[in-house]
């Protein structure tokens, strides 16, 4: 199914249609897994707003959960994706075509990465990123943030929309796959905006404050 949607997306260039197909993929896959998503605080998202959207990250289905949280908000976003995902046999085609910006940590020059972000923000896109840089596999709901996300927000004067996936979505996913449990649910909370100009706290500190972590 993932490659099927990847092929569909490869034929599409319109931003709104890409967003629609990504949402369709998210809802279809989670429905097949019998996982529903409850969104708390959706009213905090401005219709058609432009943001740097940041989320904690514990599961491969986290991007799908975030997509559903943004449903019907008129937000076209690009995900920052690691090179490993671009080269993945399972996710590669989808990642390359579903609206993403490649982050190559092995590159000696990051200027092209930041330039691509700036160009797309000028076109009206929001940017979605997991500030931890990779999935957190411990008991904590999140690991430490890398500094790149705060740099993106400051360089592009983007308000930061924090979202927090309350459940361990990976545990929910394993329950769905291994036990075919019905009626599983994941809750995602939308936090108050973080001002990109606020330098009194790190982005990680502001994020934790929003969700009392």
Count of individual domains? 1
Low-confidence stretches: none
- CATH T-level topology: Glycerol-3-phosphate (1)-acyltransferase
Portion of residues in beta strands equals 15-25%
Strand order of the largest sheet: 1-7-6-2-5-3-4
How would you sum up the global shape?
A: globular
What's the alpha carbon Rg, rounded to whole Å?
A: 16 Å
What is the percent of helical residues?
25-40%
CATH H level, superfamily name: Glycerol-3-phosphate (1)-acyltransferase
Q: How far apart, in Å, are the first and last alpha carbons?
A: 36 Å
Q: Tell me about the largest β-sheet.
A: 7 strands, mixed
Mean pLDDT: 93
The ordered string of helix (H) and strand (E) elements is HHEEHEHHEHEHEHEH
Structural class: alpha/beta
Q: From the 3D coordinates, which CATH architecture would you assign?
A: 3-Layer(aba) Sandwich
């Amino acid at each position: 199914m993932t490659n099927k949607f990847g092929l569909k997306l490869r034929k599409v260039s319109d931003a709104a249609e890409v967003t629609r197909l990504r949402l369709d993929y998210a809802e279809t896959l989670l429905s097949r897994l019998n996982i529903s998503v409850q969104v708390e605080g959706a009213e905090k998202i401005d219709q058609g707003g432009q943001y740097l959207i940041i989320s904690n990250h514990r599961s491969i289905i986290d991007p799908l959960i975030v997509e559903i949280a943004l449903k019907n908000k008129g937000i076209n976003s690009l995900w920052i994706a690691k090179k490993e995902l671009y080269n993945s046999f399972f996710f590669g085609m989808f990642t390359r075509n579903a609206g993403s910006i490649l982050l190559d940590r092995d590159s000696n020059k990051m200027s092209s990465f930041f330039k691509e972000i700036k160009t797309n923000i000028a076109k009206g896109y929001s940017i979605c990123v997991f500030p931890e840089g990779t999935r957190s596999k411990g008991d904590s709901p999140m690991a430490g943030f890398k500094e790149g996300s705060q740099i993106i927000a400051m360089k592009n004067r983007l308000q930061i929309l924090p979202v927090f996936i309350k459940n361990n979505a990976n545990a929910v996913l394993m329950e769905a796959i291994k036990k075919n449990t019905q009626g599983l649910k994941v809750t995602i909370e939308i936090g108050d905006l973080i001002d990109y100009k606020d330098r009194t706290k790190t982005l990680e500190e502001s994020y934790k404050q929003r969700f009392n972590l």
